């Protein structure tokens, strides 16, 4: 497959600015794969990156960095040592590549790499510490790619990165989910995928809590047994009532709303587990005495990890994940500023906003 010397990409500008310009097409090393990006999507982390609040040191100079960590495409070229993929393969990527030498990476915890940000030691996160997928071409380490089943289109493929976060959240439990009661706070993409994954893992019942009726309706169609608008219902009481008064075995907090942590703790049964999946925009004040007195475990996850995207690809390939309702908007890469505005303002009930990068 031939490719041009330059490509179109979206560059991070001053705080709040992102715009397209020409970049050299990346050169790849022996262990890398050049991906011709077909589709990319926006998420809350991209909003923080655009605002530069994501970077503790202010971030890279304007016009030099390409964000984007959720994307899928076609293999355009492979490095000299790569035999896992061939030119023309359809692939989805995962953002994190750990150093693969620290204790955390060696046991699969590469999203918690102890050498985070240290490129000399091999760590990289696409669209966060190295150039990402808001571009026609991206250089990926071979270990961050997953071949797509023929039945999975590029829209669905991009969402599998998010589904990987959900799978990773369930990984933290260390036990079977079958037969467990699960409550999910926050009907965004992660929460809505959480409903589906919980059902596929055999959870019963599955409750979804949020504040937007349109998204809650999608959750109901995706299999939630109990759907609660927390502005109209006492969600803690409702979840306890649905679980015989005990509370849910597992609660996934996916909203990132500070008050939701306290709700999560109080709707969890004694000895149950809360998994914090959402990112919080401010410090959280919560009743940790309730957790201590009731033996409630608190786990956290950061993105995908431990091979979770590969498992999400497998589920999707078997027709067990349905993502069509999550994709609400498409924009060409050149209109990325409008795409961001649509996502942030939730224009026309925006959930997943896609960039049609090429092809």
UniProtKB/TrEMBL annotation:
Database matches in PROSITE patterns: ADH_ZINC
Q: Where is the Enoyl reductase (ER) domain positioned along the sequence?
A: 16-355
Identify the InterPro entries for this entry.
ADH-like_C, ADH-like_N, ADH_Zn_CS, ER, GroES-like_sf, NAD(P)-bd_dom_sf, Zn_alcohol_dh
Annotated keywords = Metal-binding, Oxidoreductase, Zinc
Which family does this protein fall into?
A: Belongs to the zinc-containing alcohol dehydrogenase family.
Cofactor(s) the protein requires to work? Zn(2+)
**Protein name per the record:** Zinc-binding dehydrogenase
Taxonomy of the source species: Bacteria, Bacillati, Actinomycetota, Actinomycetes, Mycobacteriales
Mind telling me which SMART domains this protein's record contains? Answer: PKS_ER
Pfam families, per this entry?
ADH_N, ADH_zinc_N
């Amino acid at each position: 497959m031939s490719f041009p010397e330059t490509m179109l990409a979206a560059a991070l500008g001053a705080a709040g600015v992102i715009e397209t310009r020409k970049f050299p097409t990346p050169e790849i090393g022996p262990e890398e794969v050049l991906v011709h990006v077909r589709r990319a999507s926006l998420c809350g982390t991209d909003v923080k990156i655009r605002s530069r609040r994501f970077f503790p040191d202010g971030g890279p100079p304007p016009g030099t960095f390409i964000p984007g960590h959720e994307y899928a495409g076609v293999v355009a070229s492979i490095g000299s040592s790569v035999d896992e993929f061939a030119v023309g393969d359809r692939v989805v990527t995962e953002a994190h590549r750990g150093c693969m030498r620290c204790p955390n990476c060696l046991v699969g915890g590469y999203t918690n790499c102890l050498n985070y940000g240290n490129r000399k030691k091999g760590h990289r996160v696409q669209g966060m510490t190295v150039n990402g997928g808001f571009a026609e071409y991206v250089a990926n380490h071979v270990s961050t790619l997953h071949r797509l089943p023929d039945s999975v289109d590029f829209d669905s493929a991009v969402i599998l990165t998010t589904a990987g976060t959900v799978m990773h959240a369930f990984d933290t439990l260390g036990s079977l989910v079958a037969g467990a009661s699960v409550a999910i706070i926050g009907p965004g993409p992660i929460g809505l995928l959480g409903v589906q994954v919980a059902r596929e893992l055999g959870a019963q019942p599955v409750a979804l809590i949020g504040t937007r009726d349109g998204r809650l309706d999608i959750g109901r169609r995706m299999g939630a047994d109990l759907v609660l608008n927390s502005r109209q219902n006492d969600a803690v009481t409702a979840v306890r009532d649905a679980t015989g008064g005990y509370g849910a075995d597992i609660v996934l907090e996916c909203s990132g709303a500070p008050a939701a942590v306290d709700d999560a703790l109080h709707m969890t049964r004694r000895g149950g587990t809360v998994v914090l999946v959402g990112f919080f925009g401010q410090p959280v004040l919560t009743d940790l005495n309730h957790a201590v007195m009731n033996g409630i475990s608190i786990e956290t996850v950061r993105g995908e990890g431990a091979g979770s995207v590969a498992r999400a690809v497998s589920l999707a390939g078997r027709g067990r994940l349905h993502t069509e309702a999550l994709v609400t908007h498409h924009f060409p890469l050149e209109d990325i500023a409008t795409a961001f505005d649509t996502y942030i303002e939730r224009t026309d009930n925006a959930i997943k906003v896609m960039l049609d990068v090429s092809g």
